[in-house]
Amino acid sequence: MGFAKQYNKAYKVLKEIEKFEYNNISLKKEVVTVGSIVLLLNDDKEDRYFIFPNIPYSIININNNEYKCISSNAPFSKAILGKTIGDEIEFRKFYY
What we know:
The protein is α+β, with helices and mostly antiparallel strands.
């Protein structure tokens, strides 16, 4: 992906994040909701997801950790919304 496309995608993500109301979000949640950052384990692999409304799929790196930004309307988001710590998730024949 060229620099201009990456910039435009990052700009769109930033604008969506700026619109979000953070008033109802606590930093430590037991339940996955919109605005959650979720750590999923699959075998020995860790995946971090940031669930947000109207966000295009993108990957960001913070402190050497990769976060996959996914829309709350994406099928994978719908599979994990409402889950709690310790729940097992099956999505397209993968288990987390």
